[in-house]
Amino acid sequence: MSQPDLFVVCRNCGSEVSPYVTECPYCGQRVRKRAPKLDRSGGDPQPKRRRRRPTLPRLRAEEIAGIAPERRPYATFGLILACLVSVLLFQADDTVDLGYLGVPIFEDPWRFFAAPFLFADQIGYAFVALAAVAIFGTLLERRFGPLPVLAVFVLSGAVGMAVVALLETPPLFTETDAFLAFGANGSALGLLCAWLVDDRLAARRSDERSNDLLGVYVVAIVLVLLSLAEEAANIGAAVGGALTGTVLGLTLPLFTRKSAY
Q1: Peptide bond into 104 cis (omega under 30)
Q2: Per-residue pLDDT tens for 179-237?
Q3: Domain CATH number, residue 179
Q4: Domain encompassing residue 140
Q5: Residue 110: which residues within 8 A CB-CB, separation 6 or more?
Q6: Cα(58)–Cα(115) distance, integer angstroms
Q7: Contact 49, 14 (CB under 8 A)
Q8: CA separation (Å) from 132 to 106, 126, 141, 227?
């Protein structure tokens, strides 16, 4: 291994100066552009350090395996935003037909999928239903990703509206018998039941998650009572959405996120 020079000679005054300076201390002449690096190894070659592969941190006390809490529930936010936009559109022009399910007059199949996103001017109804969607949509999306949340919301709402059209159509009707069915009550119950089924299946596998089920049951009761009190919400939509969410909840383990946690 080459050793650094003990001194260098200044070309201007001929003085011997340290090799670790850039200017001659006697005449100020620049002797080199930069000082050489100091060899701190004591002359022995140092082995190259291997970079450690990043390791995952241990689960913290508030974290649950299989959930990536840093991921934002964009699909849930998107569903809620779409519902809020429909409210604004109704406020701008209440004569526009956005896809309300008119029983038994307007029962086109595409309305089954559009009606769950609509709330007209029912602000209280929208607040309760969308609050439930926000809670259980977020929980499902953090565990299974966005696609199952979208599927449960859309299918539960559509099946709920189909049940309304099936059960609420009398053999003989007049225009005065018709009413509008809309809103995400069935979709909210579908998300709740899908989450509850997955939670109970996990408990049977001895994967107890210590969730507050009392609060879940309270939300479910509120949504059912809302269906009984609000004609647009309709108990048929609640029953159809809950049953659909229960069935889809059985398939959720197929979408388990391979999370870093």
Answers
A1: yes
A2: 788 889 999 999 999 999 998 888 888 877 777 889 899 999 999 999 888 888 888 89
A3: 1.20.1540.10
A4: 74-252
A5: 99
A6: 45
A7: no
A8: 28, 10, 14, 14
